[in-house]
Amino acid sequence: MLAVPPRRSDDRRGWLRGAPPPGWVRALPLALVVAVCAATLLSDRPLDIGFLLGAIPPLAVLSYSPLATAALGCVVVALLSTPAFRLDRPGGTDLLTVVFVSLLSVFVSFVRSRRDAQLDLTRTVAEAAQRAVAPPLPERVGAVRCTGLYRAAQRGTLVGGDFFDVRDGPFGVRAVMGDVRGHGLAAVSTVASLLGAFREAVLDQPDLVSVAARLDRRLLVDSADVRHAELFATAALLEFSADVREVRVVVCGSPPPLLLRGTRATELEVSPWTPLGLGLADAGAMEASTVSLCPGDRLFLASDGVLEARDGGGAFYPLADRLTTLAAGEPAALAERVWADLVGFCPDVDDDVTILVLTPSPPSAG
Hints:
By secondary structure, the chain is α+β, with helices and mostly antiparallel strands.
């Protein structure tokens, strides 16, 4: 399936941090008008609640346009001037104060509207740039079905320090999932560099070890002119055979993938290697591990944001144990089920979360 983009309900910015205000904020000025009018008309004696109407124009600033804010200000002045409502019998000075507050609210609403439009434009451009770095996965790459999920730790961003990609090439379907040092926007340039190197290596390099070496060299070149750069990344690389009966795996400082066979989750036995960016290309001692696959098997890869998440008591998220239950059901929704379970286990996830599910599925078998 496609890589799952954050839905509006997943927008963790909050309405005080730039997200659209919730419906109750927009309804509050109108609800206040209705409440004051109803209370005064139903009461047998005058009520000293006219001062509440003075809060309506400032409240309208939060979610209404300048024109709508001006209309609400006129409604407030009209209500205060209508004898039937008996709202504190405001004098001329009181009405002038309300008029002034209404005009000021219209101006603030105009400034907010212009700012929101600029922020929306900036966010649209940023989303387009970030999606160009990490485009959504297709539903199928060669003989492998793909499901990817990404949640950036930095609020309001689509790309951070984690990355993944699945590509078909002359040497088979290859996949990568990794985590660069740091997260958020500061790591985006390194992510873009590694993904570009991976996509070229898929076409050029005849074996998976050479692909890992290409990524390692990319990091070494990027950090050569930067003093104390400490630029490195952990990654897991996979290469499927033509008949998807086998998968070759190279793990560079990253947790090994999990093999889902039915509802059982087991960690692949692979030879670990050092993270990328530490001179792997010159080591020459790394080997790819080969794992046999059966029909229906799935490979589950998760970043440190999943494996190192902790609950309130400090316990780590038991991914392998949870997969025993979560693996049942539609395979395409497995990543979403794990994400929902992770948030329930650890509501304050403070690291990039990446999940990649690869299902070998030859077209003839479908």
